[in-house]
Amino acid sequence: MVNSIFGQTGTSIFESMSRLATETGAINLGQGFPEGFEPAPLIEAAVQALRDGPHQYPPMMGLPALRRAVAENAKRFLDLDVDWQSEVLVTSGATEALADTFFALLDQGDEVIVFEPVYDAYATLIRRAGAKVVPVRLTPPHWELPREALVKAITARTRLIVVNTPMNPIGKIFDPEELSFLADLAIAHDLIIVADEVYEHLVFDYRPFHSLFGVDAIRDRVVRIGSAGKSFSVTGWKVGYVTSSAGLLQPIARAHQYVTFTTPPALQAAVAVGLTLPDDYFSDLRRTLGARRDLLVRGLRDAGFDVADVPATYFAVADIGPLDPDGDDLAFCRRLTLEAGVTPVPVSSFYGDRDVKSHVRFCFAKTEETILTAIERLRQWREKEGWRAAS
Q: Which of 201, 217, 285, 294 is the 20 to 30 A CA-CA neighbour of 191?
């Protein structure tokens, strides 16, 4: 016998498409792992910390240096006032932070509103916490917040709303008016907002980013989640952090102590250095990623894909309707892998019913060489029989 929640969960689409890319030699633009963006001072700090130690359990809440750096980084870039001693927790990745939050704040029969397209871990973790997932759908091409549907989705059992901003996979940044609307709902219905803000430093073209934790009226109702993996392109390190009021953080920390208890101290020490890097690091990262975005988007459009603007994250979402008469984004991704040697992921995998099958996601956090090679493969594919058949 196995747990019914995990027993019904198959291999994630990211893992399965990555396996297919490896097996076929395709360029993997599906899974969101960056290539070559790691800042050298961060790596050197990790090496030094490994040499110097210590190598035993660090404090359960996280190294003071890192917790302080999280608070200072939030003040520097978002003008958020955070008490690092009572309002910051270090976790082994942002997904663990989500798990700790759901396990700590949900009970049997609670309901949680999530916005689709949605990171696939949300639903599984929420259900494992004993709660019910209530999806509210954003739809192409404008991906607008469906306010009326959101209001109708709230019931007496609603406990949390999960807001991913900037939003994976569509790059949507919730603006101040939308955040104010969400804040009013949270107050009116006594709700907590889980703000998944792991892409906070990956916002392009000088667009502003506003954190839900910065909405004064709901500061004590927001659990803000960040990720060193996204901010420093070290997704394998699995270092995340939770920022919330002390009252919310205490039960989350208790869940954390029974999930992972702690995070490797050398990685924590290095991330503390990373968060204190000068402003130039963060602006250069945005500028470089913005250039890679432009490179990939131009190439995709030249190959016949309809690609919307990409304001944030490191994903470009393409409408494949004109190229896919069968209306099956998963089959199209497999076909593109096999015929063109380029692997995206289907956006339908971000919907519970998997019925929005008109878009696929490409990652542009890659080297220029990788992107140019992928573009050339797509150009060649355009000239093949497969392209003409799809047209």
A: 201
